[in-house]
Amino acid sequence: MSAPPPIRVLLADDHTLVRRGVRLILDGEPDLTVVAEAGDGAEAVAAARTTEVDLAVLDVAMPRTTGLQAARELSRRLPGLRILILTMYDNEQYFFEALKAGACGYVLKSVADRDLVEACRAAVRDEPFIYPGAERALVRSYLDRLHRGDGLPQRPITEREEEILKLVAEGHTSKEIGELLFISAKTVERHRANLLQKLGMRDRLELTRYAIRAGLIEP
């Protein structure tokens, strides 16, 4: 009986060295093969639409479009695609956002050589993967929150506002943002004003600090 074809992986990370390292790990396994690479979330979405892939491995913090934003888009466009989030951040908020975005696993870069292959196989079996050690902390935190009557953390801004906030923080003009998101510069300005009002902020500098805290851009 012949072996099943290898799992086709799309790998997205804006650091070439990280991509190279992760690719070595995955391509070293007989049942995994990297068929496409991307340097940001927008490239990842484009690559998934033109290449047959079974699994997308997405870094959280990337230029233009984050891994979480790309995961939301890919979940909408390609519901059969499995998604893993790869991150430097051991952050519970990111974990819940990743699950909400349609990801089925969350792998820390610091232990990718140990966990990533297992996470890829679990994802394709449609099983959730949480990096070892996280389960207890997440469950305890969730129970504490329920005990206080808080529920899950809420997103203070919409997905579109988040896209615009990220691009503003990266220094793009309203015209450039409009071209990237296929909306008018006037619409961008309106979203930007809403963001400032919603978040109680005055200028781009404060928005940038917020974007760094929210993990939309790297400091």
UniProtKB/TrEMBL annotation:
CDD domains according to UniProt: LuxR_C_like (cd06170), REC_NarL-like (cd17535)
Keyword terms of this UniProt record: DNA-binding, Phosphoprotein, Transcription, Transcription regulation
Domain of life: Bacteria
UniProt cross-references to SMART domains, sorted A to Z: HTH_LUXR (SM00421), REC (SM00448)
Response regulatory domain span: 8-124
Name the UniProt record assigns to this protein: Regulator
Gene Ontology biological process terms in this record: phosphorelay signal transduction system; regulation of DNA-templated transcription
4-aspartylphosphate modifications at: 59
Gene3D superfamilies per UniProt: 3.40.50.2300
GO molecular function: DNA binding
Residue ranges of coiled coil: none
HTH luxR-type domain span: 150-215
Keyword flag DNA-binding: yes
